[in-house]
Amino acid sequence: MYELLIPFGIHRESGEIVEPEDAPKGRACDCLCPGCKAPLLSRHPKVNRYHFAHDSRHESARPEQSCPFSSTVAVAMMIRHLAPRLKGQVMQTPIYRSPLYFDCCSTNSLPVLISQSAKVMIEQSCANFSDKSLHFDLCLKVGDYAILVDLVYKGKPSVALRTAKLNAARAGVLELDCGKFSIASLKADRSRRFSDAVIDFILRDGLRTWRYHPRQEAMLNAAREKHQCRARLEMHYPDQSRRTVAFHKRLRHKDKIRQKPVEKPVTVTSYFCVLCNAEWVHRSNEELKCPDCHSHLYSRKVTE
């Protein structure tokens, strides 16, 4: 992984994640790469931060270029590993507005405030949550509802939402982008552990977005009830459905736009030409001109 020095290894016997600060130097760490399972060396330089590196001289060594491990994968793995440590921590949640669509008037959608940005206490936390059709990286229990965290990064698609299941479980979905982890800030502080930086990323620093909020359905239903346009129309059309009411409104709107101007009645008048003495009958919806000289300059009305 070229963006970030290997921040942790997998202990060969226990299978646990080990940070370089907790491992003996060199091969004594007895750790494997999380990506390619090749042997690692634990390095403790005096200037740079502690890290792991592929043991290129080991008999089981593999080409470093073929290792699939990356910074985003490292962040995601560490987040799942740190799930138990989140209990009792305070997490910052983002502001969330959801569009509400109407079919009863010309207002296509209206942004509804579902939740302000808030600090919430994590009462329980577990990794790799799975419940029938719900599968998420983290499950955080907050009060009487749950926040299911979906970790996203290149190569890992977002989890499909099943709103009926989420409502039944009183759960919301928070998306956390592992690609936004700040490697530069980690490199700037040599003494800072990777795990500590990831904890801050989960609780405060990471780019998080609500995909579904536990109160979303209730807030949208309340906004629908307050929508005055629908209430006025249903008062005029009490026996019709919302779709029929919307059709009548659109129809009236189109009638106003497409209404044609009232045509004036056609009148008939006798004219004569003072130049060539020709006489003719002129209709008001036709061009006025003499039939002989084809000019209107010398046209006069015939008076009785």
Characteristic terms for this protein:
elongated; 304 residues; alpha+beta; 5-stranded mixed beta sheet; 29% strand
Describe the structure in your own words.
With 304 residues, the chain is α+β, with helices and mostly antiparallel strands. The chain has four domains: 9-69, no CATH class; 84-221, no CATH class; 227-258, no CATH class; 268-301, no CATH class. Helices cover 24% and strands 29% of the residues. The protein contains seven helices and 17 strands. The chain has helices at residues 71-81, 163-168, 183-188, 194-205, 216-226, 228-236, 242-258, and strands spanning 9-11, 17-18, 31-32, 40-43, 51-54, 90-93, 96-101, 109-115, 118-121, 124-131, 134-142, 145-152, 171-177, 208-212, 268-273, 279-283, 299-301. The protein has a five-stranded mixed sheet. A three-stranded antiparallel sheet has the order 2-1-3, with no helix packed on it. A hairpin with a 2-residue loop joins strand 11 and strand 12. The longest helix has 17 residues, at 242-258. It is elongated and about 125 Å long. The N and C termini lie far apart (106 Å).
